[in-house]
Specification:
166 residues, Deoxyribonuclease I, Chain A, 3-stranded antiparallel beta sheet, Endo/exonu/phosph_ase_sf, Craniofacial development protein 2-like, Swc5/CFDP1/2
Amino acid sequence: MGRIEDEECIQVQIWYSGRVKGKNGVGILVDRELRESVVEVRRVKDRLIAIKLVVGGSTLNVVSAYAPQAGLGEEVKRCFWEGLDEVVWGIPSTEKLFIGGDFNGHIGSSPEGYEEVHGVFSFGDRNGGGTSLLDFTRGFELVIANSSFPKREEHLVTFRSMMAMT
């Protein structure tokens, strides 16, 4: 697995984990004023990266994730979720955690069975990727923040085509 070197842009610092030319890859952008606050960068394969910042007396962990698509094998998916589990287990409970990314799943409009982690502001039907995300979220006592706040209809989807909205 190759890696693009960290690059300083005009106003941000980017940390990247992935292949130079290939599939996957994740990154985290940090404002120039906060870059000195970054005390650790963890590159975990080509689908996960985590940074640790100390800001105003608080330790913040930011994770960027890119889950395998529905058509990929179960082994690839299992390795991704195990890697994310390891990252989260490695963060002390006294530190704050923020996870973002593309989880290639739909949690659906109904929070049924996942009321403690799933808000009521989502759409569509739950699929296998969504169930994996919900199980992970519940296992670590997290919440899917994007489902907890109302949004305009055009902000409910991240991809539109003639065939589908996801």
